[in-house]
Amino acid sequence: MLQFIYSQLIRLFLPFILLRLWWHGRRAPELRRNWYQRLGIVPRASGTVVWVHAVSVGETIAAAPMVRRLLARNPGITILMTAMTDTGLSQARKMFGDQVQYAYAPYDTPGSIRRFLDRANPRILVIMETEIWPNMIRQCRARRVPVFLINARLSERSARGYERVRGLAAPIMRSISWVAAQAEKDAERFRRIGVAPAKVAVTGSVKFDVDIPENVRAAAAALRQKLAGRPVWIAGSTHGSENDELLTAHGRVLADHPKALLILVPRHPDRFDPVAERALKEGLALARRSRGEDPVKAQVYLGDTMGELMMLYGASDLAFVGGSLIERGGHNPLEPAGWGIPVFSGPHIFNFETIYQRLLDDRGVKLVADSDDLAAHVSSLFSDDTERQAIGQRALAVVNKNRGALDKVVDGIIERV
Q: Where in this chain does the record put each 3-deoxy-D-manno-octulosonic-acid transferase N-terminal domain (predicted)?
């Protein structure tokens, strides 16, 4: 009964969801393109299709090493990557080009999921992290399509939420074929909300298997050479008012290091222009990457392109990971750590608590209280090359020590393809 009520509510709200999509498409035209894919009308796929669903940019990046490994192990398969956001699909296209197929994930109405499955005909569904949609999972199970949750994490708050709707959640959880959990506490919570214990394994986080392709390394080296030894710090995946705090922090850094450059990379494209305007209002010399402007004489280099954050981390001396000075829960600190540079975050890191704890245990990350604290640490490390390199190497050591989850995940998928 709860499943029926849920499906009817989704159908009821669908016109409003589509209207909202059209409205937001005024500023982001990509949202209006291929909108019908959200109703399950996707190009028909052939062969052995592995459907990889990653809700947005972060999950898409996390899926990249797995997708590369799957293609290397089984070149005959077809990878169909879906995302809920245009930025997620743009990131995927940037990484894979024509190696894989792409589509928006269907909205979770029974009809949309049915049309999608009829056309895509996947052999297996691989969901990154914890994107649980009842109709998607139950219809896959009904068609004997195994459903894997990979790199799965579940906070205590989310677990309690699922427990409050156990009548809806429990049948969905029983339909999941395998949960590859990041940590034992995640695994315990999945068991608690209804996933059979035999179907839950602790594999660790695939995000520790940081994969930096050679072309990305080359591009980072070329940009770093162009900057000619300037002290460079980067703030990646930043949000809202956090950008203002970071620009203020950079002003303080410039007082100690006049040649310093801040590479600022907002999480969402709709923040590019407001951040540029704020930087100019602060009197900072600005260069925008999307316009091909030269950063050599800039004080702020705005990374207003898609799919280049990993490369920009590699061109920097140290990194701040955004979404953490405000209560967004932070983003993945392993991307800069994989470059062997110091990593800073604000106090709000609940989205990546397991990863941050491992970095904190080995002093591979520094949590700062606010922008003043951040500016002081950045200035200090710009003055101490030895300490900066030591912290970066500790961060990289944490990444290397925790590799291996990817092999377990890929082996589990290949067994069922």
A: 34-210
Q: Residue 381 gets which letter from DSSP?
A: H
Separation CA 198–CA 214 (nearest Å):
39
Residues 335, 62: Cα–Cα separation, whole Å: 10
- Show the tokens assigned to 294: 């030269």
Each residue's pLDDT tens digit, 14-23: 888 888 888 8
With DSSP H G I counted as helix, E B as strand and the rest as coil, what are the percentages for the chain, rounded to 5? 55, 15, 30
Q: Is 214 helix (H, G, I), strand (E, B) or coil?
A: helix
Angle between helices 166-174 and 134-142 (to 10 degrees): 40
What CA dihedral angle connects 96, 102, 104 and 107, to 10 degrees? Answer: -120
Q: 34's torsion region: left (phi>0), alpha (psi -120 to 50) or beta?
A: left
Considering 30, 59, 131, 308, which one is annotated as catalytic? 59
346/235 Cα distance (integer angstroms): 11
Task: Report the C-alpha gap between 260 and 83 in whole angstroms.
Answer: 37
Paired tokens of 350: 């609940």
Could you write out the three-class secondary structure of 166-200?
HHHHHHHHHCCCEEEECCHHHHHHHHHCCCCHHHE
**Considering only CA atoms, which of 109, 379, 155, 399 is closest in space to residue 250?**
379
**What SS3 class is residue 296?**
coil
Examine the pLDDT at 25 and tell me if it is beyond 80: no
Catalytic site residue 59? Answer: yes
What are the tokens at 26? Answer: 């005024």
- Concatenated DSSP letters for 116-134? HHHHH--SEEEEESS---H
Confidence of residue 343 (pLDDT cuts 50, 70, 90): very high
Give the three-class secondary structure for 144.
Answer: coil
